């Protein structure tokens, strides 16, 4: 069978021979100076993160493509034609939702969920051929993009051939039947048993296959926390041995940053931002998230601070439903505060529709040229790129709180490093705000975002913003 042969071939091609998936990866070597210091002094700090983020992720913005909805045709070839437009926007990493054939048994809707994978080693004929996919990846690389694939490791479709050939590779119900993920309503999938080495070899081999044979640059791992972390750590090392990759995990755990993922989800940010936008919390509702982000997460961690993705659009509501008048301010924060920025396809065209999950539902791009929000996204990407203090993870600066007289409305911060300083001033309320800066942290001379006007701030100055208004000021950028 082709996919099993591909797995075996992939295994043989990796230096080191056997595919030892059942044990944790060997501890990466520490810097010799750090190792020597630690040996002589047990109180010397040891680095937690053991992976190296690829240099090309330094200021990257992600763009999520649902191939089924992205174009009228819903194909790789049609998506390839849109690459110049995305390049002009300034996005960097293209995240493709699952590209694999979708299961038929127990399928939801007419076309089924892309997360019900029938074959990890094939492409969905709905989207085109393998050569169409290869052409998309090659064209993306030629135009300066990186491409990551959505990987569904936790479960497969009921009619994935593995269920027939290796039924022992799956978890079972109390009476011995295949089992969907417990508690959720995911009736169209069944869970793999990750205690089985064969499962690890098959899925791991597929990950290597798409990186080696098609030039894929990494993965977004669906429900990454439901898969043992030692698998992700092993695979990160194996994929990096092919070439440096970028890994985004759908999980919110510090441990996943140690030796597996560059980026994880900032679910708490998304929840807090929606609560504030709805008036269920004030601006201080962000304090808990940013306190934990700084004090708990490693400096290298990139956390996805998203306004919308495929799940939120389909199941929570559109960006307009979730954010209303707060949309532009929250978007500006997601791009300029500490975090990894994401654009879900259609946002730049002011998509106001909940896109169907199990059917074809092409995005209406007719508003694209007249969509002011789309221009805001483009301008924010350019601003982010021009100011190194706003870059991702270890490359960017920490956010320092600007204390002011109206903290329940005015959310204010400074990010500063190596001569570049950015001030963010956000009125996260439905009423105008007038607040006094309590100290000199934000003091300085700046250029205003978008207008280019010169601005000077000093301790004791009064900041006035309209309801849901925001200002971004910068100095010393590129």
SSE blueprint:
Layout (H helix, E strand, L loop, with lengths): L1 H12 L18 H9 L21 E4 L1 H4 L5 H6 L1 H7 L3 E4 L33 H13 L3 E6 L3 E3 L3 H5 L23 E3 L5 H18 L3 E4 L7 H14 L3 E4 L13 E3 L1 H11 L9 H9 L6 E3 L5 H7 L2 H5 L3 H10 L5 E3 L27 H15 L12 E3 L8 E8 L2 E8 L5 E4 L7 E5 L5 E4 L4 E4 L4 E6 L3
Parallel strand pairs: 1-2, 1-10, 2-3, 3-6, 6-7, 7-8, 8-9
Antiparallel strand pairs: 4-5, 11-12, 12-13, 13-18, 14-17, 15-16, 15-18
Helix pairs in contact: 1-8, 8-9, 14-15
Short description:
This protein is an alpha/beta fold and 478 residues long. The chain contains 15 helices and 18 strands.
Describe the model.
With 478 residues, this protein is α/β, with parallel strands linked by helices. The model is unreliable at 1-27 (pLDDT under 50). Helix 1 (2-13) packs across helix 8, helix 8 (197-214) runs parallel beside helix 9 (229-242) and helix 14 packs parallel to helix 15 (372-386). The protein has 15 helices and 18 strands. It has two domains: 2-397, TIM Barrel; 400-475, Sandwich (Immunoglobulin-like), CATH 2.60.40.1180. It is 30% helix and 17% strand. It has helices at residues 2-13, 32-40, 67-70, 76-81, 83-89, 130-142, 161-165, 197-214, 229-242, 267-277, 287-295, 310-316, 319-323, 327-336, 372-386, and strands spanning 62-65, 93-96, 146-151, 155-157, 189-191, 218-221, 246-249, 263-265, 302-304, 342-344, 399-401, 410-417, 420-427, 433-436, 444-448, 454-457, 462-465, 470-475. Strands 9-8-7-6-3-2-1-10 form an eight-stranded parallel β-sheet. Strands 11-12-13-18-15-16 form a six-stranded antiparallel β-sheet. 46% of the residues are buried.
């Amino acid at each position: 069978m082709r996919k099993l042969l591909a797995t075996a071939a992939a295994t043989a091609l990796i230096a080191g021979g056997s595919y030892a998936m059942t044990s944790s990866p060997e501890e990466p070597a520490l810097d010799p100076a750090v190792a020597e210091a630690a040996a002589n002094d047990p109180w010397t700090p040891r680095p937690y993160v053991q992976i190296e983020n690829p240099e090309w992720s330094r200021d990257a913005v992600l763009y999520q493509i649902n191939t089924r909805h992205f174009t009228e045709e819903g194909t790789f070839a049609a998506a390839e034609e849109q690459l110049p437009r995305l390049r002009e926007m300034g996005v960097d990493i293209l995240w493709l939702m699952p590209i694999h054939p979708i299961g038929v048994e127990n399928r939801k809707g007419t076309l089924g969920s892309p997360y019900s994978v029938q074959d990890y080693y094939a492409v969905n004929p709905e989207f085109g051929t393998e050569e169409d996919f290869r052409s998309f990846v090659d064209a993306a690389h030629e135009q300066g993009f990186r491409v990551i694939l959505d990987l569904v490791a936790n479960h497969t479709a009921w009619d994935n051939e593995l269920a027939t050939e290796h039924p022992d590779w799956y978890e079972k119900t109390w009476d011995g039947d295949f089992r969907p993920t417990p508690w959720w309503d995911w009736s169209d999938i069944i869970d793999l048993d990750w205690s089985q080495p064969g499962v690890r070899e098959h899925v791991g081999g597929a990950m290597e296959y798409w990186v080696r044979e098609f030039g894929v640059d990494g993965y977004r791992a669906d429900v990454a926390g439901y898969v043992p972390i030692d698998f992700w750590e092993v695979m990160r090392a194996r994929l990096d041995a092919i070439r440096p990759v970028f890994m985004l995990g759908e999980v919110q755990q510090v441990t996943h940053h140690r030796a597996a993922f560059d980026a994880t989800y900032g679910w708490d940010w998304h929840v807090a931002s929606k609560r504030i936008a709805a008036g269920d919390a004030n601006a201080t509702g962000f304090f808990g998230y940013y306190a934990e982000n700084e004090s708990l997460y490693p400096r290298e961690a990139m956390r996805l601070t998203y306004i919308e993705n495929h799940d939120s659009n389909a199941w929570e509501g559109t960006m307009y439903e979730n954010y209303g008048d707060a949309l532009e301010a929250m978007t500006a924060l997601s791009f300029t505060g500490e975090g990894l920025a994401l654009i879900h396809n259609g946002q730049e065209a002011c998509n106001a529709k909940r896109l169907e999950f199990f059917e074809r539902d092409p995005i209406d791009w007719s508003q694209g040229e007249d969509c002011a929000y789309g221009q805001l996204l483009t301008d924010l990407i350019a601003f982010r790129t021009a100011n190194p203090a706003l870059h991702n993870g270890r490359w960017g600066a920490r956010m320092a709180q600007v204390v002011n007289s109206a903290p329940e409305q005015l959310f204010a911060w400074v990010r500063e490093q190596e001569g570049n300083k950015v001030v963010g001033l956000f009125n996260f309320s439905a009423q105008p705000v007038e607040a006094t800066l309590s100290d000199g942290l934000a003091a300085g001379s700046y250029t205003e975002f978008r207008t280019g006007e010169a601005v000077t701030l000093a301790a004791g100055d009064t900041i006035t913003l309209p309801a849901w208004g925001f200002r971004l000021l910068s100095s010393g950028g590129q």
